[in-house]
What does this fold into?
Amino acid sequence: MFQRHLHRHDDVDLVMSALRSDPQCLPVLIAWGAALRRDVASALREVIATGAWQSDFHVRSAAAQWREEPRFHLFLERGLERRRNRGPRYEHLDTALLTFPETRAALYRAHAAQCPQHCRTDSRTFAEDRHVDDYRQALFGWHAAIQHAHACVVRAARWFAEQDPAASGRPETFTDWITGTRRHGSGPAQETAPTAAQRSWREIILMMHAWSPHTLEAIDVAFRKAEGEDVSHAWGGGFEPAGRPEAQAAAEALASVLSPQGRQQVRDVIEGIEADEEFREMDLANDSTMACTSDLHRTYGAESGEREDCATARGRVYEEASRPWNEGVDRNVSAARLARFLLGPRTDRVQAALSAARAAVARDVTETAPQIWHDNAEPLRKAREVAGLDLHDAAGYLGIKPVTLQRFEQATGKVPGRPVSLGYLQLLTLTCIQAGLTAPACIHQAISQPVTALPTTL
It folds into this structure.
């Protein structure tokens, strides 16, 4: 039924088959799962806020048959399955949205028929089908990714346990390994290590929890056993037996390689996840400070050959994933690069958004852009790195070489030209917005404003 929405699903299967038993599948899965989870939340928020779901054939048919208003649950249930292995279930979707309050509020309001209509735009100014397609693609990709979470954890933990602790290049802890942290690195890298570790643990635990409802209990029991307690699984009060062996194997594998500090770090992450699950839904839905759950929409181009480009790129993805990984490879960089290959078909929309933003900026304002960049090179570079925008990606969006961008960010050489510098500032602002960060204060409001008005479902 949903063959046209299985491209990302197929990409996940392709990469996992290429990695096979390679323990590096874990950092790859973390990077990719985070991107897919963010895309599910962003796309669903746009589907709700724009009213694109009302154009679904089944929603319109049911509304016409019973002579009633379109019902959102008909749209949502069409993409969800009752059986775990046949497609994404509501539990999978709910876990994907756990840390995105704007999307959760939009979902609750839509269920209660309280979706704020003033947030909608003219139907001629956005691509409804694109929002729906984005949501389906990301959802099916997320469903495919979470199936591999437990196996990747077991594989990586066994590999780490088999390594010689005295071997050169081996990280001191398993947490260091999954985050790519170098113990002998620079001061700033060590300061950001706890944040990176917390983020990585949260993503992989959310994926495991989405696939098996027994994950959190299994981890708790395995950790307590590792600390000498005499405990056993109660397995909760659920009726679903699926996922119990997977959850138990992954929990025991983690307990065998984590230090007491590492186990406490995982417990802290789980505590945060459980707190999010206990959040009162009606309080979130009625939050008056979240009056509009949508971003402002603008039209952006949709290439007709996107699916063909996606299929063509799979050869590159398979080649990249099949390369032998060794200790000399930066895991974070390699995992992020592979995730970008997999999400590559979406880059055309970033470029279209920047082009639209550039046209909306007055010429006299653009004249200040080169000097803003040159005078604030260091904070802008740091903002780009914190927001997760890779140097090579940024250079590709700007149409310049990475070494050129690196030179500009070091404020060396001549001041960059207006088109490039303006595009850099706008790209940085858009990336910060997508990452939930505040754009650097040095970027003038007249430059950043047209970007904030663009869609963040990119």
Summary: The chain has 24 helices and no strands. Residues 25-50 form the longest helix (26 residues).
